[in-house]
Design goal:
Largest sheet: none
Distance between the termini: 16 Å
Number of domains: 1
Strand content: under 5%
Helix content: over 70%
Number of strands: 0
């Protein structure tokens, strides 16, 4: 895949997550089997605000060329999604949430892999090269 495609998909997903976490955080908290107390509501809204920034970064960087900024964008999104995948695995295995906890594991893992196999301004990177 091309960086433009992956960034466009990522920006769209991040914007949807942002809006959901800002507008209806209690729904998402309860969906995962947790209690929507005031602290959880605030934390979900803070996470939603961070997703707004990630959405804008990915959208603005979708046309990045093979440069320091393009590599920085790619590496930053690999790290943030990779760390999120790790935290999501921990959450799913710990029993804190219900079976829906595996959804973020899949989403963040796939996004990490997608960003690993693209290069800014060019065609997809082939793992065998």
């Amino acid at each position: 895949m091309r960086l433009k495609t992956v960034c466009t998909v990522y920006a769209t997903m991040a914007a949807i997550i942002c809006l959901n976490f800002l507008m209806v955080p209690a729904f998402w908290i309860r969906l995962y089997g947790a209690t929507a107390d005031p602290q959880a509501l605030l934390l979900f809204r803070l996470i939603g605000a961070l997703f707004a920034g990630l959405a804008l970064i990915a959208w603005a960087g979708r046309t990045a060329q093979a440069s320091e900024s393009g590599r920085g964008l790619k590496h930053g999104l690999i790290v943030s999604n990779g760390l999120a995948a790790g935290v999501a695995v921990f959450g799913a295995l710990s029993g804190v949430y219900n079976q829906f906890a595996w959804g973020p594991v899949a989403m963040f893992s796939m996004l990490t892999l997608a960003f690993l196999f693209v290069r800014p301004g060019g065609a997809a990177i082939h793992p065998s090269r």
